[in-house]
Design a protein that fits this description.
The protein is about 50% helix and about 20% strand. It is an alpha+beta fold. The chain is elongated, with a radius of gyration of 28 Å.
Length: about 325
């Protein structure tokens, strides 16, 4: 897609027809009054429809007529900055009205939602929906590969006063809100143990997505069921608490206890370890599932180097 085509596509999304967008861009590019014939020649709009197209631009305020005589009419564009200001104002007014009126049409909720999400892009988009809708608090457990795409939405959420708590796998990422690094178990060990990059986003203790990513594919679940949301919340809180314990008592001491105490060993061996369930997408764009395969948990984690402890902060209960 050329730059011109992209501009036409963007203007079309804001309400202009394709012909209107082409004619407007021709007027802007010319920087002088143009008659209908000139607009048609420069824009590619058919001569049979160019005057109708220009009339529509005038009606929406995106162009003006400049008459030198009764039968000689030329056209000038509304300057781009002025057009964008008008479109922005109209869009915001429309959204404000819909935000007030649409909820009034909704019937009382009969049941909580839960649905599968297939594909890396779809999972990240649903997570961004939750982040943008959050107003009080936001809980995120994420790896750097996915955080790059979520960072603008998370940053904007913090800017509007949302209390952001994040558990980050890896060091080379920005810290937003209350950020904890996954240091008790190295990200490499977690990835080998689980089998994919586990992912959780919870907004306002009201809705959540839980899923994972493997290579360039991904998938998961969205739900606003309170029990599901609570499970997702407590999973991240527990993981943060383990990082704080490792920082307070020392990773070696806590690690040895977790790996040697009979009840911990039993829990780890009885748990469902990660499997390769998110295969690359098929040619038709649909995700496919591979048969789940269990991975035996290593008897002991690999040695980890001493790293600086995360900020001391009580685990949020």
């Amino acid at each position: 897609m050329t730059d011109q085509d992209e501009l036409i596509d963007r203007l079309s999304k804001l309400g202009m027809s394709g012909y209107e967008a082409k004619a407007y861009l021709a007027l802007v590019h010319a920087s002088r009054p143009l008659n209908g014939y000139e607009v048609a020649k420069l824009s590619g709009v058919p001569r049979s429809t160019v005057y109708e197209t220009l009339s529509k631009l005038v009606a929406r305020g995106a162009a003006f007529e400049a008459r030198s005589s009764a039968d000689n009419t030329s056209y000038l564009p509304l300057p781009p900055n002025s057009l964008l200001s008008r479109l922005t104002s109209d869009f915001e007014d429309t959204v404000d009205v819909l935000r007030k009126e649409l909820p009034r049409l909704a019937s009382p909720k009969q049941a909580h939602l839960i649905h599968n999400i297939t594909g890396r892009g779809a999972l990240l988009e649903r997570a961004q929906d939750i982040i943008r809708e959050s107003r009080k608090d936001l809980l995120v457990s994420v790896w750097p590969e996915e955080f790059d795409e979520l960072q603008p939405a998370v940053t904007e959420a913090e800017a509007r006063g949302v209390d952001v708590t994040m558990l980050m796998f890896g060091e080379d990422t920005a810290e937003i809100g209350h950020t904890y690094r996954h240091r008790f178990s190295s990200p490499e060990f977690v990835l080998s143990y689980i089998g994919y990059r586990f992912f959780v986003v919870v907004g306002d203790s009201r809705q959540s997505v839980v899923g994972g990513f493997e290579a360039s594919s991904g998938g998961g679940i969205y739900s606003d069921n309170p029990a599901f949301v609570l499970l997702a919340t407590e999973y991240v809180r527990h993981d943060i608490a383990m990082q704080l314990m490792g920082s307070l008592f020392g990773k070696d001491i806590v690690g040895e206890y977790v790996q040697s105490h009979p009840e911990f060993v039993s829990l780890r061996s009885a748990g469902s370890h990660g499997s390769s369930i998110w295969a690359p997408e098929n040619g038709d764009g649909r995700g496919s599932r591979r048969a789940a395969t269990r991975k035996k948990a290593p008897a002991k984690q690999p040695a980890v180097t001493t790293e600086k402890a995360p900020r001391k902060r009580a685990a949020r209960g």
